[in-house]
Write a structure and sequence with these properties.
- By secondary structure, the chain is mainly beta.
- 0% of the residues lie in helices and 54% in strands.
- The protein has a 6-stranded antiparallel sheet with strand order 1-6-7-8-9-10, with no helix packed on it. Strands 2-3 form a two-stranded antiparallel sheet.
- Strand 2 and strand 3 form a beta hairpin.
- The protein is elongated.
- The termini are close together.
- 24% of the residues are buried.
């Protein structure tokens, strides 16, 4: 849950545009593109399940399969909030050059996404 506001001298708030809050991409509403959901308010709930396959795995590296279920949205005005859902199935490899994730996601509004990610994603918030 997040909000980004600047308080002015009269006690009112105004949204900032310096570092908006955003969702989209693996483990951040995976069915949406990175940054597709953006605003000064954010609500995100996530549950992730990962299962480690046999020790040999892909290329003799630890390999995982998993699923991510998510709900949330990012918005500017309180009337713009519309709860969205996303489900992601993925396979991950703990390789010598970093974590590698490959998966597919489907979400509300007919959104779909396929991704390949090396390493962890950096975030501003």
């Amino acid at each position: 849950l997040g909000a980004d506001h600047i308080f002015d001298g009269s006690g009112c708030t105004r949204p900032t545009s310096l570092a908006p809050l955003y969702l989209g991409g693996f483990q951040s509403m995976g069915a949406y593109q990175m940054g597709q959901l953006m605003g000064d308010r954010l609500l995100h709930v996530q549950a992730t399940y990962m299962y480690r396959l046999s020790e040999g795995g892909i290329l003799h590296q630890p390999t995982f399969i998993g699923f991510v279920a998510e709900a949330g949205d990012a918005w500017i005005s309180s009337t713009d909030y519309a709860e969205k859902y996303s489900g992601t199935a993925f396979i991950g490899v703990d390789s010598k050059i970093g974590d590698i994730f490959f998966g597919a996601a489907s979400g509300s509004g007919g959104n779909h996404n396929v991704f390949l990610q090396l390493g962890r994603r950096f975030s501003l918030w």
